[in-house]
Amino acid sequence: MTLALLGAWVMLTGAAWTDWTRRQIPNGWWLLGLGVALGEMLGGGLPWTHGLWAGGVWLVGEWRAWRHPAHQPGSLSWGDLKLITTLTMLLGPFGLWIAAWGSIGVYVGAFVSWWRQGRQGRWTGRPMPWAPGAWVALSVFGGFLWIMR
């Protein structure tokens, strides 16, 4: 439990730092936090208190992310997907589970979009045509896992 909270803290602090300063943190920290949080999800799920805390941290940087210059009207941006994920957490333990899988989908989709756009610059905070689909796919997969437990 403590290790999972540490992993989540690393991910969320990095997300807030990236939003506030427009600087990319080293990818090793993202992978460490993602790996620890994913391990906790597969081992027993994220605690409810962490979900409330994570939602609060994400909402702080949400407005700036939504107003990011890379956001295109009519498309889902990094900030939009974070907001949807945060609101999903309010559905209780099931919502937390879905939000955690959806968050992983956002990062997978962002990375695939960056890769297919020529691997130039940062891979967050830019148009991500693959992120919404990855968010939906991994959220549905997480829901399926929840039902099968």
UniProtKB/TrEMBL annotation:
InterPro entries: Prepilin_IV_endopep_pep. It comes from the Bacteria. One of its GO terms (molecular function) is aspartic-type endopeptidase activity. The chain crosses the membrane at residues 28-60, 81-110, 130-148. Residues 10-103 form the Prepilin type IV endopeptidase peptidase domain. GO terms for cellular component: membrane. Pfam families: Peptidase_A24 (PF01478). Keywords: Membrane, Transmembrane, Transmembrane helix. This is Prepilin type IV endopeptidase peptidase domain-containing protein. The lineage of its organism: Bacteria, Bacillati, Bacillota, Clostridia, Eubacteriales.
